[in-house]
Design a protein that fits this description.
It contains 16 helices and 20 strands. It is α/β, with parallel strands linked by helices and 430 residues long. The longest helix has 17 residues. Helix content is 32%, strand content 17%. A hairpin with a 3-residue loop joins strand 2 and strand 3. The protein has a domain of 98 residues.
């Protein structure tokens, strides 16, 4: 057994399982005072190996992450091969069947079953995950961010296919700290229910027993760019602040909040009526749906009378998720907020919440007008669905998560990223 160095103890409570030829772990009881020493055989049973992989293993992830042309060409060719996609895809029924034995499922999918450090255990996180399809994407995202000290609320769109709901419910049932939202809604793109889905998870997470430190909301096509330890350290560096896009709203977007909108036949549309000014004369800021905020910010969302009034006012606007959180972030007195003066504006590039490549901001290498390099995947609603060729650039950024990934479009991008993150997380133990 390996004696870990003093000052870099592992956080293990009660792991007592011998798992055949796959792995073996022997754990001494945790000392009641301090974490001076822990003995452990190793972590090979948590590594992602070729034996666990599907057809993606033919790719050289190390070369892909370094941007080597030959490896990227091979990945690109595979990503457009129909037979390759069929062989990689995991049907929803697999998850329904595999989770009949939760212990076996967690082991075979190599979920991390203990906090990897004292630092991480002392800084639990809360996640809201809004999903409506692509169960395989969701499960791989959950596995990538899962840690037993964190807590996860999953919202599945009420109009999702029955197999999607059944598979995700089966997956969540295998973890004590992962749960389905208490009240699901029928999500409508660019309309209030998208916000309501996160609000319902916020309330469930806030009233849970776990005293988490920060809240992060995700969708099923996000993926982390950092390990849990890296996320914890970046959040600690905020010193109680929040990190999300919040800047002056452009003139071309103001119609979204100056006209009344309603959902008609499952779609949002204007009704030709002007809205009243926002409550308390609050300045409406522009942002996006994804945020990294402290527990106090969530308390304000649920309890502050100014925020409650703003929420009611926002319910008949267009795409309220793209201004509500940004506006709350600039309300004086909200924990972690910043002053509404334009000097405190923050773009999505400067915030750490989410890395997104918008098609109209892409450009060729060396272009002074481009915000980021061209997408190596494809575009959906002007957002880059990342390809393997985007990975090297992404991992150089400071963001915690990136959007969008799709195993149906480029499974190699997800495969190489999840393999890289697991190797890095395990390397951090030594």
């Amino acid at each position: 057994m390996r004696l870990l160095k003093q000052g870099r103890p592992l956080l293990l409570l009660k792991l007592t399982v011998v798992l055949g030829s796959l792995w073996m772990l022997t754990l001494l009881s945790r000392p009641k005072t301090g974490w001076d020493t822990t003995y452990i055989l190793g972590y090979s049973w948590l590594e992602y190996t070729d034996a666990d992989s599907g057809p993606e293993k033919v790719c050289n992830c190390s070369a892909i992450l370094q941007g080597e042309k030959e490896a990227l060409v091979q990945a690109k060719l595979l990503s457009i091969t129909r037979d390759f996609h069929k062989s990689v895809r995991i049907p929803n029924e697999y998850y329904i069947n595999a989770t009949q034995d939760c212990r076996k499922f967690r082991i075979s999918r190599k979920y991390i079953s203990f906090p990897l450090s004292q630092e991480e255990e002392d800084f639990p996180l809360a996640y809201s995950m809004v999903v409506h399809h692509k169960v395989q994407n969701f499960e791989r995202l959950l596995r990538a961010i899962y840690a037993p000290q964190n807590i996860y609320c999953v919202h599945v769109d009420k109009k999702s296919e029955a197999s999607v709901f059944s598979a995700i419910r089966a997956i969540t049932s295998c973890f004590p700290n992962v749960f389905m939202v208490s009240q699901a809604v029928d999500v409508v793109y660019a309309a209030w229910p998208r916000v309501q889905a996160d609000l319902n998870c916020m309330a469930d997470l806030y009233h849970a027993n776990t005293k988490w430190k920060y809240f992060i909301n995700l969708c099923g096509q996000d993926f982390p760019l950092k390990t849990n330890l890296e996320i914890v350290r970046l959040l600690r560096s905020l010193r109680g602040g929040n990190s999300l896009e919040s800047e002056k709203m452009s003139e071309r977007k103001k119609w979204r909040v100056s006209n009344v909108h309603q959902i008609v036949d499952g779609q949002i549309q204007g009704i030709g009526k002007a809205k009243e000014p926002p409550p308390f004369n609050l300045p409406i800021l522009s942002g996006n749906a994804y945020i990294v905020v402290n527990r106090g910010y969530i308390r304000s969302v649920l309890e502050d009378t100014r925020v409650q009034a703003l929420i009611e006012w926002a319910k008949d606007t267009y795409s309220p998720d793209e201004f509500l959180w940004a506006t709350i972030q600039r309300i004086p007195g909200v924990p972690g907020s910043t002053w509404p003066n334009p000097k405190y504006d923050m773009t999505d590039i400067n915030a750490i919440a989410r890395l997104v490549k918008w098609q109209w901001h892409e450009g060729s290498q060396g272009s002074l007008q481009a915000v980021y390099p061209e997408c190596h995947g494809n575009h959906v609603r002007a957002i880059c669905v990342y390809g393997a060729g985007d990975l090297q650039w992404m991992l150089e950024q400071h963001h915690l998560f990136a959007n969008k990934f799709d195993v149906d479009t480029d499974p190699i991008a997800v495969y190489c990223l999840e393999k890289y993150l697991r190797q890095k997380a395990l390397a951090e133990l030594y």
